[in-house]
Amino acid sequence: MDNAMIATFRDWDHRTPTPWQRLANKVLRRLRIGATLIPNQPPMTNIEARMNLFHLLEQTLAYDVPGDVVELGCNAGESSIVIQNVLTAWASTKRFHVFDSFKGLPPPAGPDAADGVYTEGSMKADQEQLVGIFAEANLARPQLHAGWFEDTIPARLPERISFALLDGDLYSSTRHILPHVYARMMSGAIGFFGCYYDESILVRPHSRDYYKSPGVKRATDEFFADKPERVHVLYACEYSNGYFRKR
Ligand SMILES: C[S@@+](CC[C@H](N)C(=O)[O-])C[C@H]1O[C@@H](n2cnc3c(N)ncnc32)[C@H](O)[C@@H]1O
Questions:
Q1: pLDDT for residue 55 is more than 70
Q2: For ligand 1, which residues put their CB under 6 angstroms from it?
Q3: Is pLDDT above 60 for 10?
Q4: For a tag on the chain, would you pick the N or C end, based on fewer CB atoms within 10 A?
């Protein structure tokens, strides 16, 4: 089910900054005043997105869905440590694979260029950042697959997948990875999208375009047009997550 009402009922969506609050934050920063009107979020995720991730991943463990766990587009590992934390708490023997170029986004072409939301190399994180966050959290490191999805997927995907975090931001990246991941997902497995912005369900006028990843929704909707599953929208403050459960 969608859970947009947890934000849209009454004034429950109080944490997404308005343009004026952003401007005020900027002025406060310039004046070197150590306060903000709205707390700044970590760059890649936020508390609601992590809660969505936590509960969906835990569901696959509680229901004993067979297969390994993958994250496509792991960046510096902000979500990867949540995943590994849950796997560790469950003493799970599942393998956890993370994929990223570690060079940021590829050059946007075709529909991604037309969207004009992202530029080549944006969101670049290096492997050392990911290694560092795991060391800081004192967690076992996942299997790391550095390279363009077009080179690593499907070759390095595990044969069976129980949970997948798909977070490539671009139409081209999502279009490439989704069919391969879907084909390996077991019945009951969950696919979780870091960005799935559906204006017909949840409107986010103050969210920035790069939190909306228009290409992800387009590629995803094209793929699911002839599939039995539906992608549901989950509120995640400035983000909008999505998920489906494999039949
Ligand atoms: C939004 S970030 C991922 C954030 C991460 N999942 C998290 O929650 O912290 C998107 C990542 O996808 C990676 N990416 C996008 N397209 C890619 C491609 N074609 N090949 C490899 N990496 C790609 C980028 O390098 C970037 O780090």
A1: yes
A2: 44-45, 71, 73-75, 78-79, 100-101, 104-106, 123, 125, 148-149, 165, 167-170, 173, 194
A3: no
A4: N
- Give dist(CA 226, CA 238) in Å, integer: 30
**Residue 78 one-letter amino acid:** E
Rounded mean pLDDT, 156-183: 98
The amino acid present at 164, given as its one-letter code, is A
CATH 3.40.190.120 fits 44-245, yes or no: no
What b/e string do you get for 197-236 counting C-beta neighbours within 10 Å, with b at 16 or more? bbeebbebeebeeebbbbbbbbbbeebeeeeeeebbbbbb
Sheet bearing 96-100, strands edge to edge:
143-146, 96-100, 68-72, 161-166, 185-193, 239-245, 232-236
- Taking 70 as the threshold, does the pLDDT of residue 14 lie above it? no
**pLDDT band, very low/low/confident/very high, at 3 (cuts 50, 70, 90):** low
Q: Kindly report the pTM of this predicted structure.
A: 0.91
Mutate to test the pocket of ligand 1, among 81, 83, 105, 115 (most ligand atoms within 8 A of CB): 105
